Amino acid sequence: MIAPLSRFERFRQLNLQGRLMLPNAWDAASARLFEAAGHAAIATTSGGIAYARGLGDAQRIGREAMLGEIARIAASVAVPVSADIEAGYGLAPADVALTVKGAIEAGAVGVNLEDNGHGWLPQPLFDAAAQCERLAAARQVAGQMDAPLWINARIDTYLLDLGLTPERRLEETLARGNAYLAAGADMVFVPGLSDVAEAAWLAQRLRGPLNLMALPGMIGADAWFDAGVRRVSLGVGPMLAVMGLVRRMADEAMQSEWPAMIAHNYGFAEAEALFARG
């Protein structure tokens, strides 16, 4: 079901006004918890969704399975939902258009589309010109559906070792970012970038807003926001933290104990109330 226009507009407003902390859900339960905590919008995490289904990250889940999970998450909350569609589940612009169409029909008001080739290409990343064509296809299909989709162009120059010097990596990120914005993206997402000075340099020179991702060792987003970053995503972090807690409970249960389960108990009545509206 396509989301109401007001939800698209609300998500666009949240991204443009800045200082948006965006949590990433991997199922209906996590989405409901983020919504109940007061988050104005939610994104999905492809890695978290894949792990919950017993799969590795990086498009091992496939288009239809991912779209089904996105639909379940979007239907479970009343706030805008942005969908992580990885690299679009295909190399060609037509593949991206098919995935974006499915994401909009699943209820998403935004998408992340990355330039990581995930081993499908001779090189780690899509050629910038090819990625621009893929982003243009995403914008075109959204326009055909009269959906003002918020397109977040992910750049993996920091996640992957491309053999670039720090200066060259930053320049490549800027060049790709501005090219992607010109091709139809609304925002640039650079996971792996953590340095505040680099974030400020990039935010000042991009012709659109910048999105970063929470990382281990970073305890807050204020410095990034003050540097001009508009949005910070939690990414797969919450799912990995849950896995860490489950591992702790599993270890404790081997000793016939359950202190962590007691310490972090949510409560059966709370859970029933959380899902009372179906």
Automatic annotation (TrEMBL):
InterPro entries: ICL/PEPM, Pyrv/PenolPyrv_kinase-like_dom, Pyrv_kinase-like_dom_sf. Keywords: Lyase. The keyword ATP-binding does not apply. GO terms for molecular function: lyase activity. Coiled coil: none annotated. This is Isocitrate lyase/phosphoenolpyruvate mutase family protein.
